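Re: Re: token formats

Sure, here are both.
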Amino acid sequence: MSVHKEIKRVTTHILQEMKERGEKISMLTAYDYSMATILDDAGLDVLLVGDSASNVMAGHETTLPITLDQMIYHAASVIRAVKRAFVVVDLPFGSYQGNSKEALNSAIRIMKESGAHGVKLEGGEEIIESVQRIITAGIPVMGHLGLTPQSIYKFGTYTVRAKEEEEANKLKTDVLALQAAGCFAIVLEKIPAALGKEVTESLNIPTIGIGAGQHCDGQVLVVNDMIGLTKGFKPRFLRQYINLYDEILGAAQSYIRDVKGNDFPNEKEQY
């Protein structure tokens, strides 16, 4: 039976129950009202208003340029569409690193001005103080480890993370620290599947994988990638379910032909 027929609103409690009974969590990104309406109607458990909007919506090379105000705009657009899914919003680069008071203020702005249900932060022990301060204020926090795109200039590459023992051990330490701090879930991005399995089994809270193997408690993809709107981006972890780029391209070309050939509008399409 479809979960979305049984649950009126997904909460952190529901997500925890899903892990405990072995039911996988479905998560996709969303940035606007129209797409969020479709994804919520489809029955997604979690919608992530990702700072990946910087890439797929604004055309930036990295996630770094997007601002807190812009994230709030996207989040509010998504929230207006959603009746069921749990909506998490990325705290953008520069809005929480190194300053737990600023982190709390950023999280409060997102919650108050967008109506979102929780926030997501990248990093481990180095951001624990910010995580704790936000959670103490009653705001749910999702962690994010492995490949953390906001640190791309430190990594210098989007390759798989934590393949070496030292980095893998740090990740294992970080996930436990985030759990102890009170995170309700953790995204694991682009790490070896075996490590994803080990980490998932070590935690009481859910893990959401993106390129982290099938043993995570749930999976997330960027919706524009999943539906084929992003041209030429096909990493190993991406399963493309439809190619909307070609579909929309063909529709636009047909429209151009009809307009230039004076076929649109026809008599039935005018007043």
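Second one below.
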Amino acid sequence: MTSIIKKELRTYFTTMSGYIFLTFLLLLSAVYFVIGNISAQSADFSGVLTSIAVYYLFLIPILTMRLFSEEAKLKTDQLLYTSPVSITDITVGKFIAASIVLCIGTVITFIFPIILLLFSDINLMLIVVSYLGFILFGLSLISVGMFVSSLTENQIIAAVITFATVFLFFIMDGLARALPADIMSSLFFITAIIGIFGIIVYDSTKNKAVAVFITLLFIVVEAVLYFIKPTLFEGTIAYALQWFSVFNRFTNFQRGVLNVSDIIYNLTFFIAFIYLTINGIEKRRWR
């Protein structure tokens, strides 16, 4: 895995992608620091991090678009996959390399709250919690971008799809408020989710009987709950979308709210996408 990390870091800093990412991250940090702290005479740096995070829409695709798509385009993926290094090590190594670049940029931005600390009283705990959320949010989006990159050999397509996916995470709370909250709509939504879950189970196990059994079991549970207490399904769509909103978890950190559940959620989120990336590559590898 170490060799993969070194290879990816070398690529980031022998091409423009790493420099572009770091330059824009630091430039945006400086601009919002001047506007949000210096000009506004405010010691709240968490607002700067929230503003910068919006630009993950563009920064994360830059960081992740080439991770796997470039290998596929140059036909070096087969050499990589037939090497002694496992697919898991390759995937985790690429993820760690991209995460290191993100962390390098984040650490450099520490200069701005340090400046605030020298000239004003600041809430150190709020800044620490905000930075933790900023990094976890970035890692979650990196895992999504890496997964998308593993699906195509075209870097531009990978970047566009990653942009669209990240954008969806940003507007998910708005979608939750706009979608219907009635019981029947919620039932259809939950049934669709159960169906998707059944497909994932089948794709992972290749056992149709197990997938059908699990799907039917969840549908039966859903039906029983509906007949016992139908009101349980009111507003389920909004609740589900808000629960899946990684951006919603990020805003908790920016308010200084440190919940173990939010940390576990982010860790589970990017581990799940790393698993999906590994699983997808393994399936294509043996076709």
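The radius of gyration is 21 Å. Residues 182 and 201 are 29 Å apart (CA to CA).
- S.
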